[in-house]
């Protein structure tokens, strides 16, 4: 059912959805494998879609960890709202990741431990990508990490403009195969 809705949203909004199917379990595991859930206080997810990464993070985070998911697509937002309505310290926002600082201010959060992203930087407008990455770098703690995935590496130059250290791993068991980028200042 989620695959059908995902495909429908991709057809309607290919620039902001960026994939024809939700991420695989293998990709989700690779995305969150290095998160220190024991010590993370604040985690944000950009573009959770139907919640593949969201569910893994919610299952592993401490109850006291604040987790904000920011989803632009209203249909995906409604799926997530329904799916995770009873989760502790989970804040779901219907807006663009460009505006995250507004919500951090609202919840009195200064810096983040981790930002996990499902955003399709390859298809987002260049100005939007730059703004999101600038905000991301600014709001991460000194040892914070930005974790994203991309289907190609042609936007690496953009990521390198914002982050000094980037580790890349390829995940073949995903449709299509993807690269996980773990970025630090």
Automatic annotation (TrEMBL):
> Which InterPro entries does the UniProt record give?
KsgA/Erm, SAM-dependent_MTases_sf
One MF term in the entry's GO annotations? RNA binding
Q: Entry's Pfam families?
A: RrnaAD
Keyword Methyltransferase appears in the UniProt entry? yes
Q: Which UniProt keywords apply?
A: Methyltransferase, RNA-binding, S-adenosyl-L-methionine, Transferase
Q: What Gene Ontology biological process does one annotation of this record name?
A: methylation
Q: What is this protein called?
A: SAM-dependent methyltransferase
């Amino acid at each position: 059912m989620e695959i059908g809705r995902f495909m429908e949203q991709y057809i309607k909004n290919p620039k902001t959805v960026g994939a024809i199917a939700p991420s695989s379990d293998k990709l989700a595991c690779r995305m969150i494998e290095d998160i220190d859930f024991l010590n993370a206080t604040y985690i944000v997810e950009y573009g959770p879609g139907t919640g593949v990464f969201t569910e893994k993070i919610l299952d592993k985070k401490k109850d006291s960890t604040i987790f904000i998911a920011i989803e632009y697509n209203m249909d995906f937002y409604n799926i997530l709202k329904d799916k995770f309505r009873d989760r502790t310290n989970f804040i779901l926002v219907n807006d663009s990741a460009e505006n995250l600082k507004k919500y951090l201010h609202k919840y009195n959060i200064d810096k983040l431990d981790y930002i996990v992203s499902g955003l399709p930087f390859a298809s987002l407008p260049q100005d939007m990508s730059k703004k999101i990455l600038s905000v991301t770098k600014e709001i991460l703690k000194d040892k914070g990490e930005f974790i994203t995935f991309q289907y190609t590496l042609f936007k690496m130059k953009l990521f390198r403009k914002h982050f000094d250290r980037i580790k890349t791993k390829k995940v073949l068991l995903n449709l299509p195969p993807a690269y996980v980028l773990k970025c630090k200042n």
